[in-house]
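Quick log. Single chain, no ligands specified.
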Amino acid sequence: MQITSPITIVKASGEKEPFNEEKIVRSLAKSGLSLDTAAQTVDYLKHHIKPDMTTKSIFGHVSTYLQENAPIENYFNYGLKRAVMDTGPSGYPFEILVSDLLRLENYKTEVSVVTQGKCVTHEIDVIAQKEKDKFFIECKYHNTPGYKTDIQVALYTYARFLDINDIQLQHNPDQINHSWLITNTKVTSEVFDYGRCVGLSITTWTHPDGQGLQDRIVAAGLHPVTLLYDIPKNDIKILLDRGIVTCARLKTAILNNEVSDILSQSETSVILKNISSICKNNE
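-> predicted structure:
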């Protein structure tokens, strides 16, 4: 049974809905919190909730509580979705993140590949291959909470796949034989319907269950550098521009002395400690 409140909150999309305690608890559980700590967090939030409070404000209250009362990895996991959005405004860091995730799942990947289709030239965000399965991947990045990827994107993605697949079937036995749309937000119901119909794989922030982008990032320990709030935003931008998108990439860059022009030795010691705490699943 869902525990709802007469208090209405405002979602990022502008829609209003009743404050739902269970929804908050589920979100907290995704970050690895125990049920007791999640319940304590909700109790704290209930003392601060006001009519028509935005989800952004709720996020701020919960983040404040977790920062002071929860293990560091749980605090950072709760802020993961926003941190991925903060890798923009370009979508290129998101493509690198997707590529790195798939490599840890034993795919061979390439990013930003230009190839000729039957009719036009295409730049493919990510090509991923595992054994005989080779995927054309469209990475749809959004930096606005509440935004949903719509049917036009799905149609565009599959049409490009068909154009590339057509010419490769004629000339290349190692052709791209699958299409895949990956986004850091949600998609409309039409996108799911279309994907099922034509065989377009869909990965969103939470879909498929247990295999959405959020679960994959946490499982892999490939958290974005935008979670490291001790690093000034200008330095974060420089790191992203250099393709250092994840904490794992930053750790390697620090150990190889590749970012000494950006981060001081005292900063890197703190950063390495935080990375160790946040990315416990990544060696």
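The domain at 92-220 is CATH 3.40.1350.10 (Trna Endonuclease; Chain: A, domain 1).
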